[in-house]
């Protein structure tokens, strides 16, 4: 028998037969034995296969260091797959210390031999600046080579580059072309992006039916962002008939994957009884999950549930806790509500100065209620020295934003001002209006 006589090719072929169970019972241990004998004679395919066996723990205990040893021997003989595998080991720190520069070196050698996975990984390394300087143009070059071989992840990545104008001029039509190729291979993120492109009419004529079709395919594969998007479309009746039950179904799937926005929206559906029976306890459960992930909207809503005793026992201190977390993230409504709680001493000691601090932060973001409240603090000298000019300035811009409750207060303050002070107050109010009232966004 040639293998037993030391013929390396015969040893390699016999190892392959044991590995595949061709003509002999499948036996990974025997496959390893024959691959090893061939590999020790320098048989490059056997060296690569032996690396694979050690990496996967097939026929031998899993041993990444030995996998690296055999991959390296094959790679140094120019074996493209072994070069790619060795690059992976360096990129992930398996069997060797993590070393992005060496990963790039081996990926490049494999990529230049046409290994699509290596081309894609090399693109990723250039995109992220791993193992060398960040270079979007070079990332595009390698993504394209892999994409043209049908590599779905590379097709998606190339679509992203065209969609964002990184490494190439922004080109929505070209982005659509590559997203479509990846999407047709079942790539969920590409399906999602293609759906968004159809919804916006970017690179393709706007087409709601096609947008929904691609978003649904991504959602059915479990992509949380697609589930969230589809749920929002059903909740709002955008591009599909309004259907709260269907919205809840998709929000729940995304929420169960930990998507904070979906958890927040699902909590809102339970609180409002939309698509599900009204259930404040379940609303609190989902709002809490989103709030604990740091979503300011959910923190505000959870604070309101504690303030009002819905789904949880009324607890002003807990309401303050959640409002504060949202307020510190810049949520204007939470800042306003926190100001109210300091004004009234709900869950915290009464503190006019602290109330003013939070009203001011919200007011400077354009919140009309906070502007009115800040004006009242100046009018009454709570937390700040009494100042009717400053009071008028803030209350007036609240009135200009449509707060009818502020109109009466403005009239009362106006009567207290001298003509010259009224002019000063109006000038200051105009300045605040320019600085602190949001400009309406046109569709």
Can you walk through the features of this model?
The protein is an all-alpha fold. The protein is 70% helix and 0% strand. The chain has helices at 8-20, 28-39, 44-56, 64-76, 80-92, 100-111, 116-128, 136-147, 152-164, 172-183, 188-200, 208-220, 224-236, 244-256, 260-272, 280-292, 296-308, 316-328, 332-344, 352-363, 368-380, 388-400, 405-416, 419-436. It holds the Pfam family Sel1. InterPro entries: Sel1-like, Sel1_AlgK, TPR-like_helical_dom_sf.
Q: Any idea of the CATH class of the domain at 1-113?
A: Mainly Alpha
Can you give the mean pLDDT? 96
Q: What portion of residues is helical?
A: over 70%
- Derived from helix and strand composition plus strand pairing, the structural class reads mainly alpha
Series of secondary-structure elements, N-terminal to C-terminal? HHHHHHHHHHHHHHHHHHHHHHHH
What value does the Rg take, in angstroms?
A: 32 Å
Coarse shape: elongated
CATH architecture of the domain at 1-113: Alpha Horseshoe
Give the secondary structure arrangement, pairings included.
Blueprint: H1 8-20, H2 28-39, H3 44-56, H4 64-76, H5 80-92, H6 100-111, H7 116-128, H8 136-147, H9 152-164, H10 172-183, H11 188-200, H12 208-220, H13 224-236, H14 244-256, H15 260-272, H16 280-292, H17 296-308, H18 316-328, H19 332-344, H20 352-363, H21 368-380, H22 388-400, H23 405-416, H24 419-436
List key phrases describing it.
443 residues, mainly alpha, Serine Threonine Protein Phosphatase 5, Tetratricopeptide repeat, 24 helices, 70% helix, elongated, Sel1_AlgK
């Amino acid at each position: 028998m040639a293998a037993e006589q030391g013929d390396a090719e015969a040893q390699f072929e016999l190892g392959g037969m044991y590995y595949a169970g061709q003509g002999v019972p499948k036996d990974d241990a025997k496959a390893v034995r024959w691959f090893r004998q061939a590999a020790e004679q320098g048989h490059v395919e056997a060296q690569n296969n032996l690396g694979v066996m050690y990496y996967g723990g097939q026929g031998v205990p899993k041993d990444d260091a030995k996998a690296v040893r055999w991959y390296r021997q094959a790679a140094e003989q120019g074996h493209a797959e072994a070069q790619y595998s060795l690059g992976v080991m360096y990129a992930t720190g398996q069997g060797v210390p993590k070393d992005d520069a060496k990963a790039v070196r081996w990926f490049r050698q494999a990529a230049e031999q046409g290994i699509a996975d290596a081309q894609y990984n090399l693109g990723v390394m250039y995109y992220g600046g791993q193992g060398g300087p960040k270079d979007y143009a070079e990332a595009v070059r390698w993504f394209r080579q892999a994409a043209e071989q049908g590599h779905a992840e590379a097709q998606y990545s190339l679509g992203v580059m065209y969609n964002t104008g990184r490494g190439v001029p922004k080109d929505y039509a070209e982005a659509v072309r590559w997203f479509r190729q990846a999407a047709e291979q079942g790539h969920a993120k590409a399906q999602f992006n293609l759906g968004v492109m159809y919804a916006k009419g970017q690179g393709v004529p706007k087409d709601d039916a096609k947008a929904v079709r691609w978003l649904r395919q991504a959602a059915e594969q479990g992509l949380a962002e697609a589930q969230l998007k589809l749920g929002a479309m059903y909740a709002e009746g955008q591009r599909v008939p309004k259907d709260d039950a269907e919205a809840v179904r998709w929000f729940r799937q995304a929420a169960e994957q930990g998507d904070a926005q979906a958890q927040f929206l699902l909590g809102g559906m339970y609180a409002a009884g939309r698509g599900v029976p009204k259930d404040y306890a379940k609303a609190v459960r989902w709002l809490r999950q989103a709030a604990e992930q740091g979503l300011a909207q959910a923190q505000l809503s959870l604070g309101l549930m504690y303030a009002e005793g819905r789904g949880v026992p009324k607890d002003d201190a807990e309401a303050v806790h959640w409002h504060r977390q949202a307020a510190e993230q810049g949520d204007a409504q939470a800042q306003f509500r926190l100001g109210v709680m300091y004004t009234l001493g709900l869950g915290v000691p009464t503190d006019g100065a602290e109330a003013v601090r939070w009203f001011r932060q919200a007011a400077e973001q354009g919140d009309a209620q906070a502007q009115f409240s800040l004006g009242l603090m100046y009018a009454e000298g709570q937390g700040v020295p009494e100042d009717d000019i400053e009071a008028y300035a803030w209350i007036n811009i609240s009135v200009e934003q449509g707060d009818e409750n502020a109109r009466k207060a403005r009239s009362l303050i106006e009567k207290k001002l001298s003509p010259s002070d009224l002019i000063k107050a109006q000038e200051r109010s105009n300045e605040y209006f320019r600085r602190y009232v949001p400009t309406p966004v046109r569709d």
